């Protein structure tokens, strides 16, 4: 759930290929239309169109005080309550639910799974509302975050209400997968909480006090868990076997890890014109992102230099940021992240082929996984 | 959920009768043993004994980071992780779930409803964790609140996890009432959020900007809703009709309102030896409690004096607190609260008699309702 900080990435058009470092997951079989991201963009548009009516109806069912904050957060209202054009995000998670249901159960399962897609989107936004309060992030999807507009208390309460709404929506669904879906989504919420805890706890520690293993575990809980859950819920709504549901969960988790690795690379070397945040933004706040921790724990001379640089707070010194970026690169952090992302995508493809052996049926999920990990570095 | 601020009230022994103002709800038929509170105390002890094993197992299922905060909050661990004797509260809500199930379905239904009782207790504690963060309350059940020990972020996350755990527990229950119970409890969470929002919003406004109607609505959402939901869930687990479930919900809500009215009276005139908080504590923080708002909106000369006094922040002036308490009393706030509490208890009894016509079967719920509203003023 970290990605939306790079908000401009979310709204830009078709992205370029990873020219400088080669494509991620080149060992995969490409599904139809996956190569250029057009299929993924169509799936995202369709997911947004399928989900929005029920999502808006769910928000409309809230008491007026909670509704107002939620409508603002989703970009459907301005702070003064007047209608806004809306930018509720890329709908990656709902698209994964629907593509997963379609892959295993066809259009009927996709239609039945819309409610599950709405629930996943509600949980994602509950976590964004709360994370922004905790992280004191002031911008989300190009707008002031809810807590900066309504205060901490209201942002916390609106998040609480969205979590309840998500689980309620699934519980009230007469679909036979309802109870299993609530259980799975609630488990995912607990994992998201543990991931956010690990993230905030790690950020408080020194550069030499964080292991790569725990950083990966944190990224899996914070980002992988909900992508995995989205895929698993789609499988549940398609009546998939427990084994296939687990494989879909693993597919989403691995793709989520690959995504986070690439997202972290962008946070260091990303082109600000493309990403909407300046190169080195993560370095300026001394974020212990995956490439940084890989570099710090590499045992290289550059790691020692990096630890020294990272131990001192940033003071508007762009040359220093370049020195840090170079140290991360020389310590192997960038290559490691690229290789690891490719590795995770390969694992994701393997899990996908287990759950959905037919490449034609797997095409949608494949193109979505490629889309979220295809980023310019 | 406001009551636990008067934390000493929760742990004191059998309470006295309302000698100075007469008993609340004197028009009711007394169930066996209800008069002296002994039956209620036995029911609370039994509820705690029935609920604790499953509650502890649910907490134990959390990831270690969330578990630690929850164990501290429930009083089962000290801040350093060593075991504590524990004071998880009076278990009023679990006792209402179990008594409600027993009233309509006997011992079998009571046994089946333990999980619902645990879920209600988890939701109650989720709301306490979050409310304490928002209200900056530093003490809960005689101990520093979780956010003062672990920080805001961890208290928010632990609350989030407890909400998820509560709804998950019900959803994973093979009992036929499972889905309806999740739906109802999730709706209650949304109502709790709206109630807490109203409370914080009202506290920010001036003394002449709050109506009695909205104060009552806030109290119903903040306190009545979860007591009502507890009773309703007990009914659902006993296989009660929709009509009876609604009557049980209304019983719990009305009793909850009566409880809040008495609690607010204690917050102004309460004996500090009995309540653990000094008389006038609510007045010192200029709390817009029910008797105060009733006084402020009474149209009496004392109301004008009260508004003037309440508009100025408290500055360690005990005589001023006495003047304010007197103004509330002269404006009729105290009498109104007493009469309204009696009225609400009468309504509660009426709803109870609809759902459980047999006075013998209704005895447990009756004694619990009496217990929570029998307070020394």
TrEMBL record, chains A, B:
<keyword id="KW-0479">Metal-binding</keyword>
<feature type="compositionally biased region" description="Basic and acidic residues">
    <location>
        <begin position="18"/>
        <end position="31"/>
    </location>
</feature>
<dbReference type="Pfam" id="PF00348">
    <property type="entry name" value="polyprenyl_synt"/>
</dbReference>
<dbReference type="GO" id="GO:0016740">
    <property type="term" value="F:transferase activity"/>
</dbReference>
<comment type="similarity">
    <text>Belongs to the FPP/GGPP synthase family.</text>
</comment>
<keyword id="KW-0460">Magnesium</keyword>
<dbReference type="InterPro" id="IPR033749">
    <property type="entry name" value="Polyprenyl_synt_CS"/>
</dbReference>
<dbReference type="InterPro" id="IPR000092">
    <property type="entry name" value="Polyprenyl_synt"/>
</dbReference>
<protein>
    <submittedName>
        <fullName>Family 2 encapsulin nanocompartment cargo protein polyprenyl transferase</fullName>
    </submittedName>
</protein>
<keyword id="KW-0808">Transferase</keyword>
<dbReference type="InterPro" id="IPR008949">
    <property type="entry name" value="Isoprenoid_synthase_dom_sf"/>
</dbReference>
<feature type="region of interest" description="Disordered">
    <location>
        <begin position="1"/>
        <end position="38"/>
    </location>
</feature>
């Amino acid at each position: 759930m970290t990605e939306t900080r790079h908000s401009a990435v979310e709204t830009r058009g078709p992205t370029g290929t990873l020219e400088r470092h080669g494509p991620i997951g080149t060992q995969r079989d490409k599904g139809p239309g996956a190569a250029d991201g057009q299929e993924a963009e169509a799936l995202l548009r369709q997911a947004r169109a399928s989900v929005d009516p029920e999502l808006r109806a769910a928000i409309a069912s809230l008491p007026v005080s909670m509704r107002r904050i939620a409508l603002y957060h989703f970009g459907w209202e301005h702070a003064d309550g007047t209608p806004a054009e809306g930018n509720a995000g890329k709908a990656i998670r709902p698209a994964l639910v629907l593509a997963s249901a379609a892959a295993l159960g066809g259009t009927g399962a996709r239609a039945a799974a819309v409610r599950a897609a709405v629930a996943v989107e509600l949980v994602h936004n509950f976590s964004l509302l709360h994370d922004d309060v905790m992280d004191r992030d002031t911008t989300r999807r190009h707008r002031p975050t809810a807590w900066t507009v309504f205060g901490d208390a209201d942002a916390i309460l609106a998040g609480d209400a969205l979590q309840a709404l998500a689980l309620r929506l699934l519980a009230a669904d007469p679909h036979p997968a309802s109870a299993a879906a609530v259980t799975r989504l609630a488990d995912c919420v607990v994992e998201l909480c543990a991931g956010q805890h690990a993230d905030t706890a790690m950020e408080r520690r020194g550069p030499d006090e964080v292991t790569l293993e725990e950083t990966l575990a944190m990224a899996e809980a914070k980002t992988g868990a909900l992508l995995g859950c989205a895929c698993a819920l789609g499988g549940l709504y398609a009546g998939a076997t427990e084994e296939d549901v687990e494989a879909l969960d693993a597919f989403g988790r691995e793709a989520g890890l690959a995504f986070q690795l690439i997202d972290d690379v962008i946070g260091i070397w990303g082109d600000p014109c493309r990403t909407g945040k300046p190169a080195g933004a993560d370095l300026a706040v001394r974020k212990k992102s995956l490439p940084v921790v890989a570099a710090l724990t590499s045992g290289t001379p550059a790691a020692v230099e990096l630890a020294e640089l990272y131990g001192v707070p940033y003071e508007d010194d762009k040359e220093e940021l370049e020195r840090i970026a170079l140290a991360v690169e020389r310590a192997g952090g960038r290559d490691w992240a690229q290789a690891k992302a490719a590795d995770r995508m390969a694992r994701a493809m393997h899990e996908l082929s287990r759950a959905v052996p037919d490449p034609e049926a797997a095409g949608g999920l494949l193109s979505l996984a490629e889309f979220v990990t295809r980023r310019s570095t």
